[in-house]
């Protein structure tokens, strides 16, 4: 089979992200890791309670999130420098976290401030600390070069905090490389997969924009048969099949990957934003072949806001069913990758081909990646 090759990122970024020399080489997309020099969510804020510590992960890195009784949350490597046991099993005292084993205490910068049974300075060793921020009900860390953290902005997150929208969160874990998720959402031509949930609809490609770090595709949808689901009608408005005629464009769905995040926005025929989805795909495992999703879905409240409240459970069930169909398919793609020993995708849609190049260009070939043979 033909293996679609994708180019890696240029060498000028090698000193920061570990990219290889000016690589003209091309790599299997599923062996290209996320660039760590961005802000990645690793927990919901409400999960990290005051005076407690919470275990989280980014790729192969265990991270302990510590929230003192006062002051902001902070992030440390989740291994005590002494015997390497998880700091997340420790105790928060004041602004420090104490290891559960021998009571070594570490401050928010990772410095060991106390080895209680020796009582002198400079004995304990530090642990790694991560730049850490909170926004939109999420806790973000910067797993790359900490010197770059201040220069990299946190992402804009859906319509969290906008009283005109109602927002729900979702956080499924998937057994697949993060790139499968970007491809799945960007390619609206897969609506046949969702025929049981949405009836017979067809995506109509309306154009695209792209740049060095982003790719956006726009679609509208035409209903070819089947009843419109209630949740869909709530978001889009009532659509009916028009026998023998081309359906008018009622809304525009814009899907955008701005590396490493992805968004989906729906504007109605008047240009008003009616739905805003923001999602981050956080890699899991040293091979990054697992993904923890953090997503926020904001829906515009109708004139009578209580109607959205009444329909909220149905909307949640509808989106859950859609996502479960997507989950099954991307995990099957990952299974095929394993069984075939690499990426045998034969892509024909120009939008997805451009997206794959974007993900490769901005990612980091991992230690197992080998240049593909050309030709």
Automatic annotation (TrEMBL):
Coiled coil: none annotated. Residues 39-141 form the Rieske domain. This is Aromatic ring-hydroxylating dioxygenase subunit alpha. InterPro entries: Cholesterol_7-desaturase, Rieske_2Fe-2S, Rieske_2Fe-2S_sf, VanA_C_cat. It comes from the Bacteria. One of its GO terms (molecular function) is dioxygenase activity. Keywords: 2Fe-2S, Dioxygenase, Iron, Iron-sulfur, Metal-binding, Oxidoreductase. It comes from Acetobacter farinalis. Pfam families: Rieske, VanA_C.
């Amino acid at each position: 089979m033909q293996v679609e090759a994708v180019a890696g990122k240029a060498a000028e970024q090698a000193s920061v992200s570990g990219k290889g020399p000016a690589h003209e080489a091309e790599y299997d997309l599923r062996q290209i890791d996320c660039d760590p020099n961005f802000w990645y969510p690793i927990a919901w804020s409400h999960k990290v309670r005051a005076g407690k510590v919470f275990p989280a992960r980014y790729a192969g890195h265990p991270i302990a999130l510590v929230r003192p009784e006062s002051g902001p949350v902070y992030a440390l490597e989740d291994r005590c420098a002494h015997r390497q046991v998880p700091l997340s099993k420790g105790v928060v005292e004041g602004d420090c976290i104490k290891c559960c084993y021998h009571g070594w205490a570490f401050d928010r910068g990772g410095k060991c401030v106390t080895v209680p049974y020796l009582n002198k300075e400079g004995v304990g060793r530090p642990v790694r600390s991560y730049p850490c921020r909170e926004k939109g009900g999420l806790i973000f860390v910067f797993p790359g070069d900490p010197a770059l953290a201040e220069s990299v902005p946190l992402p804009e997150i859906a319509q969290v905090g906008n009283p005109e929208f109602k927002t729900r969160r979702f956080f499924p874990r998937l057994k697949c490389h993060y790139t499968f998720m970007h491809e799945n959402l960007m390619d609206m031509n897969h609506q046949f997969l969702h025929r049981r949930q949405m009836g017979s609809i067809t995506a109509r490609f309306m154009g695209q924009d792209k740049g060095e770090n982003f790719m956006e595709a726009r679609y509208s949808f035409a209903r070819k048969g089947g009843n419109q689901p209630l949740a869909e009608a709530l978001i889009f408005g009532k659509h009916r099949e028009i026998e023998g005629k081309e359906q008018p464009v009622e809304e525009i769905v814009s899907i955008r990957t701005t590396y490493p995040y992805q968004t989906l926005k729906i504007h109605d025929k008047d240009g008003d934003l009616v739905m805003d989805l923001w999602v981050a795909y956080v890699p899991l495992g040293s091979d990054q072949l697992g993904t923890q999703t953090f997503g926020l879905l904001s829906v515009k409240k109708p004139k009578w806001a209580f109607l959205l409240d009444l329909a909220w459970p149905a909307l949640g069930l509808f989106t859950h069913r859609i996502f479960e169909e997507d989950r099954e398919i991307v995990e099957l793609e990952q299974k095929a990758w394993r069984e075939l020993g690499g990426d045998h995708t034969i892509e024909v849609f120009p939008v997805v081909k451009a997206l794959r190049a974007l993900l490769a260009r901005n990612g980091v070939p991992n230690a197992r990646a080998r240049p593909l043979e050309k030709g």
